[in-house]
Task: structure prediction
Amino acid sequence: MTSGTPGSLIPTSGALPWRLRSGRLQVAVIHRPRYDDWSWPKGKLDPGEDWPVAAVREVWEETGLRVRLGAPLPTSDFPLLGPRGQTRKQVRYWAADVTGGSGRLFHEVDAVRWVEPAAARKLLSYERDHAQLEALVTAHQTNTLAVRAFAVVRHAKALPRRKWTGDDWLRPLDEEGRAQARKLPDLLLAFGVVRLLSSSATRCVETFKPYSQVTGVQLATTYAMSEESFERRPEAAVKAMERHLHHKRPSAICSHGPVLPVLLSALAGHARRANKAALAAAAKDGLDKGEALIAYLDRKDRVTAVERFPPLREP
Result:
């Protein structure tokens, strides 16, 4: 909810753009003249918008920088008192690599400063903004800041089997599924996905097709991750995923409900502690149709964090 009624929650997203200069870490801090404060780029979600999508959009609108989201950072949750009563603002953050943009300021911001962490601590106006900075610094020190996304997607909603008379692997998405597929590009773009691998089944191909059309990223397909192949050779699906995973670029795969538990369990083999548990839970519970699980991988292909993004309906 975003109305400002008592007890309502204002969902907000932001990011910490970072870079290395002469081997030293720098972060981008913004100044808002309306509040005369220094903080991180952030803003409220638009209707029907997902958290990562809003984070990328807000960085662009407030700094003129194009970014690709990386490591998730601590969420900030704090009360606000306004004319309509008390609300709470929840802000989800990610570290962000700068991929382009002019840096032109044109939305509620009159200055952006690239500073090292010590200077940022002094410059930030709010104590609550220090948690994201400390997490980013720790990630840098432990070599888990420069991560890439690996998205595991369950195909969007398809026509029911009882309403389809052809071969099952040719069964297409239904209207709701096509709407889910249309929402997926914004989410995958937020993480800079540049490689796609899908089961050769039509419902999986159609789930990734909008992203391929929007970005020009080639959509590769494999029979190995189809339900038909999985029934005979489940190990082939894991091998196909592993080959895709090791290419060191932000990637996404799309497969089926019966196949994903095995794939997620294999992915858990690249993780430790809480991340292994998160992947094991996802393997046990399953993903909803159209849901994306984002595993963040470091340079050694180790899973450093896991997030899940259920499908959103079109506004």
Summary: The chain has nine helices and 13 strands. Confidence is low (pLDDT under 50) at residues 1-6. The two ends are 14 Å apart (CA to CA).
